[in-house]
Design brief:
- The complex is a heterodimer.
- By secondary structure, chain A is mainly alpha-helical.
- Helices cover 70% and strands 0% of the residues of chain A.
- The longest helix of chain A is centred in the middle third of the chain and has 34 residues, at 182-215.
- Chain B is mainly alpha-helical.
- Chain B is globular and about 35 Å long.
- In chain B, 26% of the residues are buried.
- The chains are: A mainly alpha, B mainly alpha.
- The interface between A and B is medium-sized, with 31 and 17 residues.
Chain lengths: 471, 89
């Protein structure tokens, strides 16, 4: 079940939300939590029933390790060994589940048939890694099995984030379905979901039509066609993933849980460092805290020089790239992110700041180039498309891209594409819109129109699943 | 080992000891940070500067931040409070 499906939006979610509030009002907060836990297991089974036991086993294993780490019975060296054991098992399971075919391929072996990696494993593994490190550092008490399973399986974010911390999540469980500010919470949750749905079903999927048409014909693209294709995907991914995040955060809010924000208008960034403070923020926080910082610390206690920082950025971002999927394109994409951050650090030392507009344009063009690598099915395809951004036998023709899309579809997607191209760079963000949201007739009408248009696009069948659900 | 007196240092002293670190790391000799200073209002305070500040702070005060604590340090006030808790622990 996808967050963007009609079954989820108009069947599953309303039933869960209504049930949560009825149980909270007439039974207890624990009953409402049990209802959400049950709903989460149904949701996950609906997407990947064969891997439900793995999700439960991961939650049970890490809950057990967390208990051991919080126990006063063990001395510090033993606790460290327990943590390393827990992290090793988590990472090994992730590697076996996700990278078996990739690793077998490196050593010249054939593909293992029918090897599908478990839904959401990249995300729930990271959440458990953060839990174990926090428990080891005695920042959180051991959670109860009930709370931990609710955290690990929570349906709004189990498949693709935002990445939550146990401390932040479990602390809110008493608020599930609570009466304080309920009307406002529900209204804002619905508003955020409407915005996210529109971003995904209308804007992202419109860009996807152009991107898919271009990527199906990379070898024959003109320079203009290559730019059209690459830009279409750059915008598609942003609206797809930030739309998904709005839906996940909005759905959680309907239940009384605040998930962390995941996007903040990233294409307005002036540097790659700033970009990673605005793009996939929950992953970026994980990378900075649990990859970048330990790498820096492992380089000795001396001064953090720019050279050390650049090496750490390259390493951390390359690992983060590989986390996205078992392909060299993701590794290269991650390395390019690290190189972009490193280049900015050296540039900063020159003390020759660019005007904001120029810096934003340079940063966006670099992001667009890295998105070519991210989207391409292979590194050679990425190089071909990247090459066509600067040279191709044909310069201006875009027929290769547009002729692959039915003319009726082009009329349908033209307006969303123009709208998306503007709001990525100007105007309020989703969270700004929702924080300033007042339940008035005009706002309600706006939500209704956004939902109606989105549903029309979904029913018209232009849609696809979220990109990050595949990670 | 810290003396009892050092363990009771008042907060303003911690802020005073942080000032030269911030000036040095952010390469701005005229900078004066307050409890409200953060990456949002201090030029150059990006992720590299942040981890450098963390490392320099750890050295200056002889403390160690837990990884999970780093994300909670959103401004200078958070840093001062956490340092105070650690040196008085």
């Amino acid at each position: 079940m996808s967050l963007v499906s009609v079954v989820f939006l108009f069947g599953f979610l309303p039933i869960v939300v209504i049930g949560t509030h009825l149980l909270r009002d007439f039974v207890s907060a624990k009953a409402a939590q049990a209802w959400i836990l049950g709903a989460s297991l149904v949701f996950y089974a609906g997407g990947s029933v064969r891997f439900l036991p793995l999700l439960l086993a991961s939650a049970a294993f890490n809950w057990g390790v967390g208990r051991a780490l919080s126990s006063p019975r063990y001395a510090q060296p033993t606790r460290k060994r327990i943590m390393i054991f827990g992290l090793t098992v988590d990472v090994l399971v992730l590697c076996v589940a996700k990278y078996t075919n990739f690793i077998v391929g490196i050593f010249g072996g054939g593909r293992v048939a029918h090897w599908a990696f478990p839904l959401g494993i990249s995300f729930f593994t990271i959440a458990q890694v953060m839990y174990l490190v926090d428990a080891y550092e005695r920042l959180i008490p051991a959670s109860s099995a009930f709370d931990h399973f609710t955290f690990a399986s929570f349906f709004p974010n189990v498949t693709a984030g935002p990445l939550e911390r146990v401390k932040h999540f479990v602390g809110q469980l008493n608020d599930i379905g609570g009466q304080d500010g309920r009307d406002e919470r529900l209204a804002r949750g619905i508003a955020l979901m409407a915005i996210g749905l529109f971003k995904k079903a209308v804007i992202a999927d419109s860009f996807a039509r152009v991107a898919d048409a271009g990527y199906a014909n990379v070898a024959t693209l003109s320079i203009a066609g290559a730019w059209l294709t690459s830009l279409a995907y750059t915008f598609q991914l942003y609206f797809d993933f930030s739309g998904y995040s709005d839906l996940a955060i909005g759905a959680a809010r309907l239940l009384g849980i605040r998930l962390v924000n995941n996007f903040n208008a990233p294409y307005r960034s002036r540097t790659m460092s700033e970009y990673w403070q605005r793009w996939h923020i929950s992953l970026s926080n994980f990378i900075t805290t649990y990859l970048y910082t330990p790498i820096i610390r492992s380089m000795g206690r001396g001064r953090v020089t720019v050279h050390k920082a650049c090496v750490a950025s390259l390493l951390a971002m390359t690992i983060a790239g590989f986390w996205h999927g078992p392909a060299w394109t993701f590794v290269l994409w991650g390395t390019l992110q690290g190189a972009g951050i490193a280049a900015y650090q050296y540039w900063k030392r020159l003390k020759r700041p660019m005007p904001d507009v120029a810096a934003t344009i340079v940063t966006f063009l670099f992001i667009n180039l890295t998105m070519v690598v991210f989207r391409s099915p292979s590194v050679p395809t990425a190089l071909t498309l990247a090459g066509r951004l600067v040279y191709a036998p044909e310069v201006l023709g875009v027929g290769t891209v547009l002729n692959a899309i039915p003319s009726a579809a082009i009329r349908l997607i033209a307006l969303p594409i123009a709208f998306g191209g503007v709001v990525a760079f100007a105007g309020p963000t989703s969270s700004e819109l929702v924080e300033g949201f007042q339940l008035r007739r005009r706002a309600a009408a706006g939500i209704a129109v956004a939902v109606a248009v989105s549903v029309a696009f979904i029913v018209a069948g232009t849609g696809s699943d979220f990109v990050y659900r595949a990670f | 080992m810290r003396t009892e007196e050092e363990g009771r240092r008042p907060v303003p002293d911690i802020l005073d000891r942080l000032q030269p670190l911030f000036r040095d790391v952010l390469d701005n000799p005229s900078l004066t940070v307050t409890r409200a200073s953060s990456g949002l209002n201090v030029p150059g305070w990006d992720s590299l500067a942040h981890i450098t500040l963390v490392a320099e702070t750890e050295r200056e005060f002889g403390i160690r931040f837990a990884l999970g604590e780093l994300e909670t340090l959103k401004n200078v006030g958070d840093m001062v409070d956490l340092i105070e808790r650690k040196i008085s622990a």
